[in-house]
Amino acid sequence: MSQATHGGIIIRNARFHVTLKLNYKHMKLNKLLWASALISVSFACSDSGEEKPLGKYDNGILIMNEGNFGTNDGEVYYLNPNTEELLPNIFEAENLRPFAGLLEDMVLEADRLYLVANTGKVEIVNPADFKSLGAVSAELDQPRSLAVNGSKLFISDYGPYDASYATPDSYVAVVNGLDGGVVSKKIEVSDKPEDLFSYENYIFVASSEANKIEIIDATQETVVTTIELEASPKQFNAEGGILWVYAIATDEVIFYTLNLSSLTLENSYTVPVANATNRISFDGDDKMYILTSSGYPDYNDAVVTIDIEGNTATATELMTGSGFYGIGFDDDLDQIYVANSNGFQGNGTVTVLSETGSVIRSFEVGRGPSGFLVY
Amino acid sequence: MLLLLCAFYFVASSPIQDTVKLAEVEVYAPALDRFAQGQKVISWTKKDLENYQGRSLADILQEQSPVFVRQYGAGMIASPAFRGTSAGHTAVFWNGLPINSPSLGQSDLSILPISAVDQVSLQFGNAGALFGNEAIGGSIHLETNSEFGKGLKAGISQQIGSFGLFNSNLIGGFSSKNFSSSTKVYREFSNNNFPYQDLGQIGTPAVKEDHAQFEQIGLVQDLAWNLNESNQLKAAFWWNKTNREVQPVMGSNTQDEQEDQSIRAVLDYFHFGKKSIWNLKTGVVQDKMLFSESLNQTNQYFVSGDWDRTFSEKWNTKTGVRFTLAKGELSTYTEDDSRVELYQSTKFTSSENLAFSINLRQLIYSGTFAPFTPNLGMDWSFWKKGSQFLQLKTSIGKGFKVPTLNDRFWNPGGNPELKPEESMNGELGLNWSGTGKITWNQSLTYYRMSVDNWIIWLPKGSVWTPENIKKVSNQGIEYQGSLAGGIGTWNWELMTSYTYSKAVTTEGTDENDQSLGKQLPYTPQHQANAKVRLEKSGFSSSLGTYFVGERSVTADNPRMMPSFQLFNFSLGYDQLSRGKLHFPLSFQINNVFNSDYQVLYLRAMPGRSFQFNLSILV
């Protein structure tokens, strides 16, 4: 385990900005919020701290296995981190049919777990017992993530490929009904929308290719505001009333904060971490864990932790290797979960690390493990 | 000792050409097994292929051979797996030209229609020395034949069947004593709108496949000339074009379309000397593949020459050289590869019952030496009593696969540093046959093989790149039997086969590789087929079945696909005629019991289907 420390943080005042001093308190974990929140590659936030019924799959970690392209063998594993009990393929086990898709995202909202398959559907299950509640199975192309607003579902979708494998017709699909149904509208957005965040009457869209955040009015179902960024936004994270945006560029990652009442950028914090991927997990306190990958020719992957305190950020390499494909954090046990795809040749593995990066254990999971939902 | 490690046998009774003789009506074609002593060969003649008119090579291999065919849906990509090896480990030849795509290193059996060929032979095991690149698991040989002195021939046939099947064939030919021309034109079409249970949708509703339409058209032209008594010229041309909607895997709604177009042409010149045959061969293979809108095109040019010499009754040799230029113009790269290969075969016929062969080949590609591949084989008929005999076939040999153009040059990810894959194979076979009231041929083969430097594409960050990763060890048993006889005016025939194949990964990415010691993906351990056929005064009926055992989706085997068994039935009458016209009629039911099955995970396959065939022949 090598430890490389990257230097301090560069604070750029955002274009629209009103200077807001970074307040350490805002970074503190709001325990109430997190009691029902989830940590996954795509974090989605519950606006309230509502209680969930206790079921077979409550109180544990759901491991998202994307599956292999062309095989559609995405699935969910359930892990009880205390007993280390691991239940494989729980969608198929509970519904007696295969998931049959590439699992891109898992979003826990409104007492439902939304399983977003980038092969063109969203399956909706009861998170307690994983029984199917419904689906959105037509009209979608390459869905990426989902947000709930009132009684509507908003689904980000790359849209179909064109002749040169570009996706010029990306959209956010609207479905009326929390248990799925038909797509009632496709709201045109910029190329390759990723994560969504729902707040009051707004849906925030991370438009990853356009380096923008587009904000949709959930009632009018149109884009009402656009915020320009200097990096590609991948993930939203709401903490303590602040919406954080994780964005990446080649040689650095940028964390933006958004003012939710004025719908403008407040601050940006640039950390010199090269080759960051879109995989991030927030520990709910003052740290985040991201995966980096050097690409050609060395293909070195790493787990990097970024610690933002006051005006400084430190980036520390916790673990290096290759094939890292997902990252998660268990807030109860303070453990980091690193998923390895093992080249998609078969099942992947998960390695559990302590906060300091020492390996606690490793175990086999499903194909292409890509994220974790801790709840 | 090495010789006895390996083995093999023989099912088809192809004539063995020991001496150079040219029958008057014959268009010369060197026999596949001329120097293949000790190797297993199966052949289907034109008559055997009749029941497969309108179907593809994938179907006959799956239903009647030990080869496992990985089918991605109805009419979709189908790739052969001989003896637990992968699709890229099968060399495919058409009239002696290697036709595997140089960019993909394999062929799609679904777009090799039976209607276009007159003979199919399969050779099992390593035959790098005899057949060169990619003959690791085995090789497939497609031939078109023409004859002299047969006059005028013509025919039309039409097939109509379930799911929009509509196939049309036209054949026409003329031959005199010294000239022969034969033409085939075909169009094969299917909507493939078969019903299936969609496991990818909530409630798993029964739906109709709506994106698997298949259309194929083609033209085959064969020409042969006897220039004089000792010189013959032979040419063949094959144009084939397929348009397919790519059937999505369940749970996906992709709308891809694929167009494949191939032009293959070969010209052979034979000079028959007193005790030798010279063969000059030149050919072109052009493949164009348009997947959705991305175009990949390859051209291969071949020139070869060999000299087949009979020294005495005991000694035969063949020596040759082949030059290949492969040009790839793909969506992500443009590269050439030039190859030269030298080959030499020697056969020693010790007695009528015992023959040995030694084959050697060295291929050099873009200046790099591929592994030198020797092969040794023996056929020994060691016991004979009346009309029965027992034959022992054994061989040992090597095979190789040059990294494909995609492996080396795909941008991004191609790895120019790749080494060729290299394999070693040995086999031992026993063949028991007899004639009489009942004619039989029973054979059992044990083989053992290893493939080293097996190339695997692995994701490295967002880029996939190939590496020489795996070592695989295969062994298995192949049983094949045929029985035929008559009861009164009835003729009957029974064909059976069973294959056991154990193919395990012995070296992987590292010592934690979960595939170590486990069966390769999509490689059933057990496979069997049987077919019974009855015939009486022009009526014939057959019932066939094939069984494919459990197989895993991935190399570490956590998810197994269930075994399946399918039945096919056919009925035919071929004595209907009026004047000079003949009207053979037949009717087929495929998947008689409407079994729900998948060959590959979540790839829907059709249930019961019906097919009528009507032909008019002159």
Properties at a glance:
heterodimer, A: 375 residues, mainly beta, Methylamine Dehydrogenase, Chain H, five-stranded antiparallel β-sheet, 50% strand, disordered N terminus, B: 618 residues, Maltoporin, Chain A, 22-stranded antiparallel barrel, five-stranded mixed β-sheet, 5 helices, 4% helix, 58% strand, globular
Task: Give a structural overview.
- The complex is a heterodimer of chains A (375) and B (618).
- With 375 residues, chain A is mainly β.
- Chain A has one domain: 7 Propeller (Methylamine Dehydrogenase, Chain H).
- Helices cover 4% and strands 50% of the residues of chain A.
- Chain A has three helices and 30 strands.
- A five-stranded antiparallel beta sheet of chain A has the order 1-25-24-23-22, with no helix packed on it.
- Chain B has a single domain, classed as Maltoporin, Chain A, CATH 2.40.170.20.
- In chain B, the strands form six sheets. Chain B has a 22-stranded antiparallel beta barrel. A five-stranded mixed beta sheet of chain B has the order 1-6-7-4-5.
- In chain B, a hairpin with a 2-residue loop joins strand 25 (438-460) and strand 26.
- Classes of the chains: A mainly beta (375), B mainly beta (618).
- Chain A binds chain B through residues 68, 70-73, 88, 97-101, 117, 119-121, 123, 132, 134-135, 137, 140-141, 160-165, 293-296, 299, 301, 322-323, 341-347, 364, 366-367, and chain B through 199-202, 204, 249-253, 255, 292-294, 412, 456, 458-463, 509, 513-515, 553-559, 601-602.
- Chain A: It comes from Algoriphagus antarcticus.
